[in-house]
Amino acid sequence: MYACTAPPLSESPRTSYNARMPNAHDAPQVCIASHHGSFAELLADAEFRAAAERPDGACLVEFRVDAFADRSEAKLREALVAFTPQRCVVTYRSPEEGGRDANASDETRLAFAKTAVQAQAAFVDLEVATFARLGDRARGVFADRKSTRLIASFHDFEAVPVYDRLHALRKQGEALGADVVKIAVQPKAIHDASPLLDLLYATDFAKPLMALAMGEAGFWSRVLGPRFPQPAPFTFARGEGAPGTAPGQPIWRELLELYRFRRIGPATPVYGVIGSPIAHSLSPAMHNAALAALNLDGVFLPFRVDGEPAAFAREIAPKLGVRGLSVTIPHKETVIAAAAEIDPLARQIGAVNTLVARGGGWFATNTDAHAAAGSFEEAAGGEGALNGKTVLVLGAGGAARAVAFGIKARGAEVWLHNRTESRAEKLAQDVGARCVKREEISRQPKALLGVINTTSVGMHPNVDATPLAASEIPQGSLVFDTVYNPLRTRLLELAEGRGCRTLNGLKMFVRQGAEQFRLFTGRPAPVEVMEQVVLQALAKRG
Ligand code: ATR
């Protein structure tokens, strides 16, 4: 058995705000990997030059010498001077581990490494395998290094090797005299990276491990390197609009500004959203902006979780330092299995959107219900406005359940309509509602105060779709679409044409997130900041 002490689930410290900003020298850096085809192109790239020249020293630039058609030791020296050697990472990747120069010999690559060491580049990367083949010749080159730090690397672009293999590679890298061992692997799903996570907590190593899990399932590894017991000195990123050099590299500015990468340290609380797909979730933008607005230590990540969300919450999340999770499609029901404690309304709903670390386990709740019902009630006239009033809910999925229970708890009489009648019948029975057919809706029943759409009909990219035709929308009623992408759905457009008051999904989305934020951090959420960020993100998407 191996020595590895992954931490238990721990609660967020309630007073972790104003955490000391590490000074520029200690703080982890972001290394922008060059995607260029030549030194000349790299030298002409204003974005890379400006990043390397930042006075806060936040950025490094990686030269991928194997991809440079004009490579020569003289050009390397020139580029190191141009970028300042202390801002440079020099890599001449072997063809076996993804290098672009199929004819590169170990000797040639070592000669470039020697030039970089002599010029005092910040880091030089050489594969563990190359180093082992070159033996004393490589040791000789690195024995003379002054400020340069040696990265011994390993890459597997297909899979994640088993723990014992990873452990042996890390040991080998350290034995070769590396200052940092870098292991880059390719998980297919987030659970595949478990051996890598265990290796990050192994206690029998002296040097930092830069553990990189490529692809969307490994996004955490791009951001959380400085949070592990032996913090990684930097992480890799790509330039704006550039392809990067490995799958899953975030844009460097996003790491610095959105994820506040330089503030991340071993005590930083981690929060996140789990779902599949997850790349377009607005929650990271919204929650990170809220953490930053209150100057709280903490970072919020998207976690692409396919398969068992409860297993993720129980087994993986504690090792990532996760103390709070937002839960989205398709995990809102299955994740309940991870909960040690569940809020009574969420239990009735049968779906949760929030997990909070509490007392060594997960407390599960549903902030959608109050967010939706509260927004609707407010638009209907405020507290008590739903009491005794009839509201039609479209849909019978997880969102419909939250909405139906939420408005019922505020005194509404609930009518339900869903494409699949049997699902509506089941929900009607659970919540105490009445199922209605489409014909009844088109007859414009006088009793209706309003309609709430909880289906995904009309959501981007199917923006021309609507769950009700214009003639089916009750004239003069209050129409609420929980869809927020786009903000003005076809349903809302048609409703306006029928003299209805309308409510889009923005307030509900921000409200459910604000309540999560309060549960995660113990602090009231900066709601205006959150709303602004979501509006900006939606506008950017167009
Ligand atoms: P969620 O948890 O977001 O509610 P869900 O459980 O998949 O997601 O539910 C999606 C809801 O949108 C369901 O009510 C679904 O209707 P069915 O129960 O008939 O599947 C509804 N929905 C999705 N696409 C639809 C479409 N094209 N037309 C009508 N209803 C649709």
Write up what this structure looks like:
This protein has 3 domains: 29-268, Alpha-Beta Barrel (TIM Barrel); 275-366 and 510-541, Rossmann fold, CATH 3.40.50; 369-504, Rossmann fold, CATH 3.40.50. It has an 8-stranded parallel sheet with strand order 7-6-5-4-3-2-1-8. Strands 10-9-11-13-14-12 form a 6-stranded mixed sheet. A 6-stranded parallel sheet has the order 17-16-15-18-19-20, with helices on both faces. α14 packs across α19 (506-521). The model is unreliable at 13-25 (pLDDT under 50). The radius of gyration is 27 Å and the shape is elongated. α3 (73-83) links the parallel β2 and β3. It is α/β, with parallel strands linked by helices and 542 residues long. It has helices spanning 39-43, 46-52, 73-83, 106-118, 128-134, 136-143, 163-175, 194-200, 219-223, 252-258, 283-293, 309-316, 344-349, 367-380, 398-409, 421-431, 438-442, 490-497, 506-521, 527-541; strands at residues 29-33, 59-64, 88-91, 123-127, 149-155, 180-185, 209-213, 234-237, 270-275, 299-304, 322-327, 339-342, 354-358, 361-365, 390-394, 413-417, 434-435, 448-453, 478-481, 501-503. 35% of the residues lie in helices and 18% in strands. The protein is built from 20 helices and 20 strands. Bound molecules: 2'-monophosphoadenosine-5'-diphosphate (ATR). 2'-monophosphoadenosine-5'-diphosphate binds at residues 329, 332, 395-400, 418-420, 423, 454-457.
Task: Give the key terms.
single chain; 542 residues; alpha/beta; TIM Barrel; Rossmann fold; 3 domains; 8-stranded parallel sheet; 6-stranded mixed sheet; 20 strands; elongated; binds 2'-monophosphoadenosine-5'-diphosphate
